[in-house]
Amino acid sequence: MASEQGFTLWFTGLSGSGKTTITELVVAELQARGSAIEVLDGDVVRQHLSKGLGFSKEDRDTNIRRVAFVADLLSRNGVPVITAAISPYRELRDEARGQMDGRFIEAYVKASVEECERRDVKGLYAKARAGEIKEFTGVSDPYEPPENPEVVLETEDETPQESAQRIIAYLEERDLIPPARGS
Amino acid sequence: MASEQGFTLWFTGLSGSGKTTITELVVAELQARGSAIEVLDGDVVRQHLSKGLGFSKEDRDTNIRRVAFVADLLSRNGVPVITAAISPYRELRDEARGQMDGRFIEAYVKASVEECERRDVKGLYAKARAGEIKEFTGVSDPYEPPENPEVVLETEDETPQESAQRIIAYLEERDLIPPARGS
Questions:
Q1: Predicted TM-score (pTM) of this structure
Q2: What is the pLDDT of residues A131-149, one digit of tens each?
Q3: Which CATH fold topology does B8-173 show?
Q4: CB A116 within 8 Å of CB A125
Q5: Which pick of A7, A43, A107, B8 has the fewest CB atoms within 10 Å?
């Protein structure tokens, strides 16, 4: 059964900025509160909706439009959704925002390329620098930071737990999620 | 706000069998009852989720898997969904059924190729016979009828209104939709 308040929490940020880790923490907290939640993770979407698409601007745009199409379907029916794709282009994020109107919450998972490259959890930056991955966001492909995101997560200065907590606080303030159990 | 009872009403049948017409009638009745409903129409899905895919078996399968992926996301969150794609291959429909378990309702919109060709609302059969459309289901591409569908709509013997009413009756019997207003 879906919550009565649908929204799309749209994470955007470089590879390695912390989107997936923060998503997992937010999901755990929402589930603990008994809230429905669906996650459209970048990798999952590439697998289920966008197999065959590459990383050209055109293919990235198509991929993001599909994410937005599904997030819109869910959120307008009262289902909270988290999307966690790099979504590097401002225009496409703004298109998703327009589509979902007041249900769209943009959360900028902020970390510099240098920091993400230092973390390099998946070893992708090393491959990108070596030229083994073409069109890699932040290295050989652009990333356009949001201009007016609802939330900015300063992941170089706060832990993933702190970032997740700030998201939860924002959702509480907007009255979009149930209160913590026992509170 | 979503209904508490999610399900996927999966129409399958030839082009021209009546999937879209019956869908529109069912949607109108559900909306009159105040039920949420989302439609994943074959053409809409090709536009929003599957642009670039063709009509080879492989591409058809990918398309249907995407429809099932989205229908599953919605229905497991309490949102009623109607899919109205030809979905010619039994194996793929059964895969969707397995994925959605008890939430999957297969409705076979039955009409012979001869009858659909006689109707030929969109003029597609004429083009297929003329060789202008390749891989056209029922003409130059296979259609595998369901073996144990929950509902069979005999569209050569009943009107679209009667077919829609039989769907509504089935959903009522399963207690999946609100009662008619005023009843």
A1: 0.93
A2: 999 999 999 999 999 999 9
A3: Rossmann fold (3.40.50)
A4: yes
A5: A43
